[in-house]
Design brief:
The chain is mostly beta strands. It has one domain: outer membrane lipoprotein receptor (LolB), chain A (Clam), CATH 2.50.20. 10% of the residues lie in helices and 50% in strands.
Length: 247
Amino acid sequence: MTGKISHAQAPPDKARVAQELVARLDQALLKADGLVKANLILIKKTGDSWTWDMSIFRKGEDSLSLFESKGRGLEYKILFKEDGELIFAFNALSRKIFKKNDEEKYENHLNTGFSFVDLAGTSYQANYNPIVQSDLDIAGKKMKRVALRPIVPYFYSKLILLLEPDTLRPIRLDFHDKDGVLYKTMNIKYGPVKVKAKQKVTKEDIVSRLEMLDLNTGAISVLEYTEVDRDVKPDPSLFELDNLNRL
């Protein structure tokens, strides 16, 4: 349920506008039913890099993400239930399943800058209250700025969303830890992505890359979407916990 903003936080009109801007973030981030192919890339400050091939199966509020590397094959599966309210991680190398609770959901996955919550596709509008909506000047260019507070705080104390002033496309999301310190920032990039739907293949200009900069380590993590196949109809058994440890 979308959190309400009190009149003490913002006038009703500004609160409504802020909610609409946050809704644009949810609309922009890729949460397509079917199958999404992607690459997850970790680039450390030393220049060393690691790449995983991702397959994301989604049906409604449930999704299953698979992570494979060339050297090790399947390394991880993450099962997200109820739009990320329930998160289960299966380590294929140790053959163990872990349920992620509360703050554990904010642990970095595979040492990248993306936490389990970041990968869950959880609705920002449903889980954060926009508290300030204003304009921000960056290098001579005005941006729309929205500050967000979590309805139930576990680790992120505040998020700052930036949007283009004309298109209102979300372009950056800054994450502050529980002490209020900015520790990572995600740039949202748009570009053509191959989309299969109704037996036809087209290219759509949608979110194509999420680039997460870890300010503590200097590492950059990139989630790059390569293909969306809306014709894939995932079998419901994919999203059953009892099947998560099957290879």
